[in-house]
Amino acid sequence: MNFWQFILQNHTEILELTLEHLWLVAISTVLAVLIGIPLGILITRRPALNKPVLGAANVIQTIPSLALFGFLLPAPWIGARADRLAILALTLYALLPLIRNTYTGIKGVDRAIIEAGRGMGMTDSQLLWQVELPLALGVIIAGVRVATVISVGLATIAAAIGAGGLGEYIFRGLAMVNDQVILAGAIPAAILALLADVSLGWLEKRLSAH
Amino acid sequence: MNDPPDHRPVIQFQNVSYCLENGLELLHNLTLEVERGETLVLLGRSGSGKTTTLKLINHLLSPSAGEVLVDGRSIRDWDLIRLRRMIGYVIQEVGLFPHFTVERNIALVPQLERWPAERISQRVQELLRLVGLDPQLASRHPRELSGGQRQRVGVARALAADPPILLMDEPFGALDPITRAQLQREFLALQNRLRKTVVFVTHDLREALLLGTRIAMMEAGRLVTAQTPAYFVQSTEPMVAAYVHAFGTDLKRGAS
Known about the structure:
The structure holds 2 protein chains of 2 kinds. Chain A is mostly helical. Chain A has 9 helices and no strands. In chain A, helix 2 packs antiparallel against helix 7. The termini of chain A are far apart. By secondary structure, chain B is α/β, with parallel strands linked by helices. The longest helix of chain B has 18 residues. The chains are: A mainly alpha, B alpha/beta. At the A-B interface, helix 6 and helix 7 of A face helix 2, strand 6 and helix 4 of B.
């Protein structure tokens, strides 16, 4: 049986696993955005928190993904279901690029612009919403892009703890020593990563055109 | 403004010093008053404390010692936002918001003050005419304008809510000499009509003599002297004489 026959025969399963994969990535990226961007903003306001927050996000990033999935297994509620666990782990991994890019994006806004706004009586929140965030948006979207692409790759490992996704094929293929099965998981995952990269890259370019 | 005539100085510096956190003193024991309707030029070299002095007025910086009073009240007692919204602030062209159109840039303070939309757009049109800009430029972004046009937008933005005080930090510094001369003339004409209280920072003696009703010379964080232009060029103060000399003797003729 060649590769294309395998794909054709299993196309419903491939589609299902692709959707499952997308779901894991989408939920975890949204959660990471909801946590990471406010944290990034916070550390521009409270410089004392800068090192601990970025340090913690950095440490998480260095934990090997399989080990992190394993560490989280005994956690209550989270550990009870594989998809919850996978989403938590993926969220944690996505935090660093989001926090860091939000922080550097805001810090990269020209000081003179901020000072002009402040000098004309803008409050801190007016400056944030009307000046700093719009001007940092391109850099922040770049962070979302990096986080998403990383998540698409990492989510394949979530299959190791039974969370599903395209990693199922990769692990199954490895166990069966069957390249075609591995590719049936790896190729759609690569396509997803590329699509995320291109579409968010386009958005990034549009939003940073100042 | 229809306040009763008020002869109190609008801005007062009383023995003001300003130090950085590392102890470096940028401003030493400054005592200076700015009268209503005058254009006080702060003149001096880079690092002489001109910009520091300016930023103490709208409380972007807080004095380390002494008091800064605006309308007779210490800047510490002012509501920060209210104080700043009655003080127009113009800096070199970089101060415009690059992601705002010209119209939104000019409308900034009125928008913050929640003026009705109609009044804002009327005011924007009025200001564009006032600073000599084509009303069609309203929908452009700052990057689509020339340096001189950007600077006019900066002035219009500062004037938008009709503040009684205007702070200008080397507003024409980045312009070519011809555009600068044109804007200087227009500034004079504008100031003749509006009679704002203006504090203007420059290192250019020609600009100071042309625009100032009084010139305050600063050096190394200290006020050297504050004089009208005619007296200033004749000052025997060594620092002033050196500065005047550096700009060439022909200035004496121009100022008389």
